[in-house]
């Protein structure tokens, strides 16, 4: 084979197919014959080049048999001992032949590993080992590289480049070798690689490769042919059971033509087809099948042949179907073809019908004479009699028919010997004697020899080209077609045998198979082998650890060694490996006597630690199997047989041997050898196993969790990109287990995280990187999700220790630290809050500059401390630190510059400070929010000169949130308190800031500020409404000289809107009828006598309006109150008043003035500057500086002059006092001596009609804000240079009895027109 395979390709196929493999497959061959064949195959299977060549030239050829696949299947059956009973071999012979079969299979796998060694990456060159190799002496590396390159054959280098591989030099045992040709191509020095591989040795590699002109092109061709052949074989398997579907499948995949001739040619030439299925298909009745049958029969040439030989030739290719109708159709076509091509018999047969009838009778004769089911055989005379008159009503010659009978009787019509050899089935050989076996074998050998000779002669003149394999990828296809029989053979042998040699062979085979499946990325095959190997460790079975034997210990060692050497390729299979290691640790505890905690299942206590998900199904999980194992072990150990207990502990104790412990430790310490993808798979599997360990409801274990900590420590020096992917998995696992109910587990996680963090923070982080942030995130997650105060306290202490020890190296990790303290700030535990706040204070005092990137998080953290109502002292201290942050921002704005330039100071510095202060205002109790409000506006006033105009816009949006309806408390009492205190304070403070920086803010914020003042007036809170009007007046007074006309328009429009919003519409539009006036007149007389001190003379129209006002007040059980308005005076004008006082001169358009009481003296107390009646309309009046004047005025008012001492344009100080109501039954005299009607005054002589009261109509009241709006309008109007004149008159109604309300006429350049239009429009409606 090794010498002449290039010239004897077809003959080698016949040799294997007809001789070697037939001897292995047949049940008639003896043990000696099979042994000889296996010895020969052993030599073939140990040659890597020959093994790959067999697959390439035969299994990838569409016209040849699958020699390699068939060889592996036969060897697998022998290794499993499936022929042992058939052979009648002795136990010793059975063992020998099974071992020989295993040796052949292992040799094939070793050849495949040897062939694919270029694809294997040694872990020595990956992971951290690669980094360490780079850091070696550069001079030494350069010198050795030069030596190797000088002595290296260029062909392997060219070959490596042709495969797309980079040829780099790596270190190996003190020397340097190309990484594409590793020094150790075996499996860790275990002798798994054969040294006899032709064309793959160090010397013959280049020569073998150079003899192939285009390896890459031939690879694609062979792969394509193999795929086509696999599809063809699948179609043939379908054809065996359902011929029509098989033909359709081949046609669908373009492997077979669609014409009847092409299908007939395929059925005629392909020997892989089942002959019975071919006969069934040819006998079908549909048109296409009949066309195929006709084309099939037409492929035969019967020239010069007699009928019986022609029939033999036809039936040599297929087996006739059992249905007579199918036979009839086939014989009919055969007779027609025979009559057409056989000219010698045309004289004997008159027509094709004669040949048809005679052929059918021959089939019947064959069945009758050679069927064991027919008891009465047909005689010659009966046969001759049956064929009378078939030749056009004439008889055929008797001698002719007798010759046919004799030939059929002596020689049955059979199919080809290649298909009839199965007659000697294995069932016939079972229980046969040695003599019978030898006889059957002799006959079979004769048939094989004849068939082989015929095929050799037939193929001798056929051209053939033998290709020598060169590409590594051929092994992929070889393993894909053979991995199943490999796995079956090794699994059965390892299960059934305890022989050390057999176990060693099987374990070597498993390692080879896993290596091949790994390097070629065959996930299904790799998982199957690793799962099978892990099963043989007996660690994951239900009763495994009680039946531990030496072969299982060896399997554990093999699994660990495989994980160490092939860890870069295991991917998801790491889970099976680590499951076994986890259970191995438990077995070691049992073997060393530490078993009481883990053997007996303890019922879960109330509130116990069922750690992950109690509802998760555990029936099929390894932890469930482990629980069953514990029950079994406990039941054994609880018995009385102490010897058995000692035996079990001794067997399990082998798992604690030094070799096993070292093998396990190498996996975790060797994790540094894993590449960037393999380490991620490794930690994912380890975290999954750790979850299963911790999910045990009775005894959670932390073995894998501890190993996670170890590998994190080992791999911390990896490239940061690799470390980030690795920590993403580990950190997520810590997030889960750190929040488990078991404080023992959570405490261990947090403490381990602390140790890892201290190690990780030793490395300095560059700017704009976020590795520290990702690493420290588990602290934040555990702090947020954990319900244990102890664990939260532990987290805060760990973070505090990190700040104390490694603050200088912390960069992006500050964000996580402040997040932890933010969560701690909301705690109710005094130790947690105090320790966290002390650490925050320390950070701001000593490490402020290093926290700039996380400044927003730091201020947010302080805000949370301020909002913790349980610690008011801490809240005040936190606000103090926030104020100091503002000072830092003002002193060092350059620290906050970024890509946004100067705006970065606002975004990163000022805005977080002011926003968090506003958050404190919105969230905290009165004392804390008042302090926060004071600090916020103090910061604005102090540092506002540094702000840009756009910054102020953002800032005022924050301020306006204080007045947002949606932000106000829902409870009415709290809402009232909020408006009276916080909103009122914030309103005055906002106006102070706005006034202070008016030049900068007026252009962009005036409209918003005026809108906010209007909102305050509209609220159902008298003090806030008063504050709104006062703030508007203060604004006009403070910046009036700076306002432009268009700005004045906005201010006046705001005053008008306030007036309109506060206008008592019901009083302005209500019309009393005559009956009401008649009933109320007597009551008005009583009221007027009571008010004689207020009004002495009133004109008729004014008196009517006043009486109407008084009547409506009495109807509503209210004391009619005097209307108090401002009476401006023009400079230099005086008038005569009541009691000798001068009254202002009335304009010509108004009625004569009514004498009024003398003006009251100045009020020393601002609290007394209001009337005692709660329902009176109150407004601050113009006054001398430093004095307060109370001026009750009748309803008809005439404009006068300004009081003495007040310059034109000057505004009095507004009043902020609350109105007080009188609760006494008698009227109290006011400061000015004016008598006021008491609240409880009720008329006694007239019944009041409440149904007609204005309040019943819509419930509107005249509030103090109405008069306040009028006062502001008057004040602004008087300072605008115009005289404010009001006239109230009642006009007569129309003919239908309607009356119109009194109209106010205001004459002023700006305000007069504004208010007049408003009132006129409403009265008109």
Characterise the protein shown here.
With 1325 residues, the protein is an all-alpha fold. A two-stranded antiparallel sheet has the order 1-2.
List the helices and strands and how they pair.
Elements: H1 9-25, H2 31-45, H3 48-59, H4 67-79, H5 84-87, H6 91-115, H7 128-134, H8 138-151, H9 154-162, E1 169-172, E2 175-178, H10 204-210, H11 215-241, H12 243-252, H13 260-269, H14 275-282, H15 287-298, H16 307-315, H17 324-341, H18 352-370, H19 380-386, H20 398-410, H21 417-420, H22 426-429, H23 434-459, H24 474-496, H25 500-519, H26 523-535, H27 550-565, H28 574-591, H29 596-599, H30 622-637, H31 642-653, H32 658-669, H33 678-694, H34 703-714, H35 720-737, H36 743-760, H37 771-785, H38 789-806, H39 814-825, H40 830-846, H41 855-866, H42 872-891, H43 903-923, H44 926-943, H45 949-960, H46 972-996, H47 998-1018, H48 1022-1039, H49 1045-1062, H50 1065-1069, H51 1074-1090, H52 1100-1115, H53 1254-1258, H54 1264-1279, H55 1311-1324
Antiparallel strand pairs: 1-2
């Amino acid at each position: 084979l090794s010498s002449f395979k290039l010239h004897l390709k077809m003959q080698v196929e016949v040799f294997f197919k007809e001789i070697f493999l037939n001897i292995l497959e047949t049940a008639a061959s003896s043990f000696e014959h099979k042994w000889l064949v296996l010895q020969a195959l052993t030599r073939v299977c140990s040659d890597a080049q020959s093994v790959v060549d067999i697959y390439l030239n035969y299994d990838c050829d569409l016209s040849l048999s699958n020699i390699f696949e068939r060889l592996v299947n036969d060897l697998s059956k022998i290794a499993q001992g499936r022929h042992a009973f058939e052979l009648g071999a002795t136990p010793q012979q059975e063992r020998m032949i099974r071992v020989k079969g295993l040796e052949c299979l292992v040799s094939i796998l070793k050849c495949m590993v040897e062939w694919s060694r270029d694809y294997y990456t040694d872990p020595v060159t990956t992971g951290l080992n690669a980094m360490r190799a780079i850091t070696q002496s550069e001079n030494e590396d350069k010198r050795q590289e030069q030596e190797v390159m000088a002595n290296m054959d260029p062909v392997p280098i060219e070959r490596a480049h042709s495969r797309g591989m980079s040829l780099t030099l790596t270190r190996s045992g003190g020397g340097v070798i190309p990484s594409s040709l590793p020094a150790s191509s075996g499996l860790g020095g275990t002798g798994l690689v054969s040294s006899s591989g032709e064309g793959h040795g160090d010397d013959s590699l280049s020569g073998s490769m150079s003899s192939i002109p285009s390896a890459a092109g031939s690879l694609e061709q062979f792969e394509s042919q193999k795929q086509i052949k696999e599809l063809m074989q699948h179609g043939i398997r379908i054809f065996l059971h359902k011929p029509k579907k098989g033909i359709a499948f081949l046609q669908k995949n373009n492997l077979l033509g669609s014409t009847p001739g092409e299908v007939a040619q395929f059925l005629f030439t392909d020997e892989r087809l089942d002959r019975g299925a071919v006969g069934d298909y040819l006998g079908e009745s549909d048109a296409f099948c009949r066309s195929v049958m006709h084309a099939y029969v037409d492929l035969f040439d019967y020239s010069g042949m007699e009928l019986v030989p022609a029939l033999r030739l036809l039936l040599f290719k297929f087996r006739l179907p059992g249905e007579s109708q199918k036979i009839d159709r086939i014989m009919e076509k055969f007779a027609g073809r025979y009559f057409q091509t056989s000219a010698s018999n045309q004289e004997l047969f008159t027509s094709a019908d004669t040949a048809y009838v005679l052929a059918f009778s021959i089939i019947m004769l064959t069945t009758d004479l050679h069927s064991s089911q027919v008891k009465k055989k047909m005689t010659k005379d009966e046969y001759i009699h049956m064929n009378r008159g078939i030749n056009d009503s004439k008889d055929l010659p008797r001698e002719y028919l007798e010759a046919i009978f004799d030939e059929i009787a002596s020689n049955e019509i059979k199919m080809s010997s290649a298909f009839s050899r199965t007659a000697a089935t294995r069932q016939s050989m079972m229980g046969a004697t040695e003599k019978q076996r030898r006889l059957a074998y002799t006959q079979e050998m004769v048939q094989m020899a004849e068939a082989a000779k015929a095929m050799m002669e037939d193929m001798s003149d056929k051209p053939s080209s033998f290709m020598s394999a060169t590409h590594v990828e051929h092994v992929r296809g070889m393993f894909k077609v053979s991995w199943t029989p490999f796995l079956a053979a090794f699994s059965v042998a390892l299960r059934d045998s305890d022989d050390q040699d057999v176990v060693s062979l099987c374990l070597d085979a498993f390692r080879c198979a896993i290596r091949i499946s790994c390097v070629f990325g065959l996930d299904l095959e790799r998982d199957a082998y690793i799962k099978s190997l892990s099963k043989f460790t007996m660690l994951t079975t239900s009763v495994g650890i009680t039946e531990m034997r030496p072969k299982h210990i060896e399997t554990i060692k093999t699994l660990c060694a495989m994980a160490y050497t092939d860890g870069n390729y295991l991917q998801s299979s790491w889970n099976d490996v680590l499951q076994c290691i986890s259970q191995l640790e438990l077995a070691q505890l049992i073997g060393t006597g530490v078993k009481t905690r883990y053997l007996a299942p303890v019922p879960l206590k109330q509130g116990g630690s069922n750690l992950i998900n109690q509802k998760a199904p555990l029936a099929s999980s390894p932890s469930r199997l482990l629980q069953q194992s514990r029950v079994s072990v406990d039941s054994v150990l609880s018995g009385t047989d102490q010897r058995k207990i000692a035996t079990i502990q001794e067997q399990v104790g082998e798992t604690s041997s030094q070799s096993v412990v070292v093998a396990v430790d190498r996996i975790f310490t060797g994790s540094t050898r894993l590449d960037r993808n393999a380490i991620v798979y490794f930690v994912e599997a380890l975290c999954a196993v750790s979850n299963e360990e911790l999910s045990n409801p009775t005894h959670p274990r932390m073995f894998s969790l501890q190993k996670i900590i170890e590998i994190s420590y080992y791999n911390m020096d990896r490239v940061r990109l690799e470390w980030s992917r690795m920590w993403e998995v580990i950190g997520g696992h810590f997030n889960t287990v750190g929040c488990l109910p078991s404080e023992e587990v959570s405490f261990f996680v947090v403490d381990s995280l602390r140790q890892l963090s201290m190690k990780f923070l030793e490395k300095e982080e560059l700017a704009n990187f976020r590795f520290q942030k990702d690493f420290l995130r588990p602290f934040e997650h555990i702090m947020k999700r954990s319900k244990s105060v102890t664990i939260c306290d532990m987290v805060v202490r760990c973070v505090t220790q990190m700040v104390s020890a490694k603050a200088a190296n912390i960069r992006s990790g500050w964000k996580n630290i402040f997040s932890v303290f933010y969560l701690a700030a909301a705690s109710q535990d005094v130790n947690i809050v105090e320790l966290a706040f002390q650490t925050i204070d320390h950070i701001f005092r000593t490490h402020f500059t290093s926290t700039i990137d996380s400044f927003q998080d730091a201020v947010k953290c302080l805000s949370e401390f301020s909002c913790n109502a349980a610690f008011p002292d801490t809240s005040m201290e936190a606000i103090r630190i926030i104020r100091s942050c503002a000072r830092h921002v003002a002193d060092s704005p350059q620290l906050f510059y970024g890509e946004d330039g100067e705006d970065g100071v606002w975004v990163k510095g000022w805005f977080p400070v002011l926003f968090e202060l506003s958050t404190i205002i919105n969230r905290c109790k009165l004392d804390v929010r008042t302090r926060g409000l004071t600090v916020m506006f103090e910061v604005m006033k102090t540092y506002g000169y540094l702000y840009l105009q756009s910054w102020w816009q953002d800032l005022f949006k924050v301020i306006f949130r204080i007045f947002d309806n949606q932000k106000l408390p829902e409870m009415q009492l709290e809402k009232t308190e909020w408006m009276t205190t916080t909103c009122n304070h914030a309103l005055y403070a906002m106006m102070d800031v706005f006034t202070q920086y008016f030049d900068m803010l007026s252009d962009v914020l005036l409209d918003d500020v005026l809108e906010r003042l209007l909102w305050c007036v509209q609220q159902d809170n008298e003090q806030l409404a008063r504050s709104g009007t006062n703030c508007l007046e203060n604004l006009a007074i403070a910046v009036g000289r700076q306002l432009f006309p268009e700005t004045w328009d906005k201010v006046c429009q705001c005053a008008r809107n306030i007036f309109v919003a506060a206008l008592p519409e019901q009083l302005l539009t209500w019309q009393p009828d005559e009956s009401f006036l008649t009933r109320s007149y007597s009551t008005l007389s009583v009221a007027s006598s009571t008010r004689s001190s207020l009004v002495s003379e009133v004109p008729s129209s004014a008196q009517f309006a006043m009486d109407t006002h008084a009547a409506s007040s009495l109807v509503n059980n209210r004391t009619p109150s005097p209307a108090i308005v401002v009476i401006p005076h023009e400079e230099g004008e005086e008038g005569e008043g009541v009691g000798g006082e001068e009254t202002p001169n009335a304009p010509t358009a108004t009625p004569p003035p009514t004498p009024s009481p003398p003006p009251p003296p100045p009020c020393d107390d601002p609290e007394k500057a209001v009337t005692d009646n709660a329902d009176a309309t109150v407004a601050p009046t113009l006054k001398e500086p430093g004095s307060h004047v109370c001026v009750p005025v009748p309803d008809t008012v005439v404009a006068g002059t300004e009081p003495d001492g007040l310059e034109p344009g000057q505004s009095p100080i507004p009043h902020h006092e609350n109105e007080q109501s009188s609760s006494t039954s008698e009227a109290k005299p006011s400061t000015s001596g004016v008598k006021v009607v008491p609240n409880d005054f009720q008329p006694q002589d007239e019944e009041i009609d409440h149904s007609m009261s204005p309040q019943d109509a819509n419930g509107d009241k005249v509030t103090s804000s109405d008069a306040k709006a009028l006062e502001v309008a008057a004040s602004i109007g008087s300072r605008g240079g115009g005289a404010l004149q009001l006239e109230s008159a009642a006009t007569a109604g129309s003919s239908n009895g309607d009356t119109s309300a009194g109209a106010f006429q205001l004459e002023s350049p700006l305000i007069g027109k504004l208010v007049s239009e408003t009132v006129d429009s409403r009265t008109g409606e």
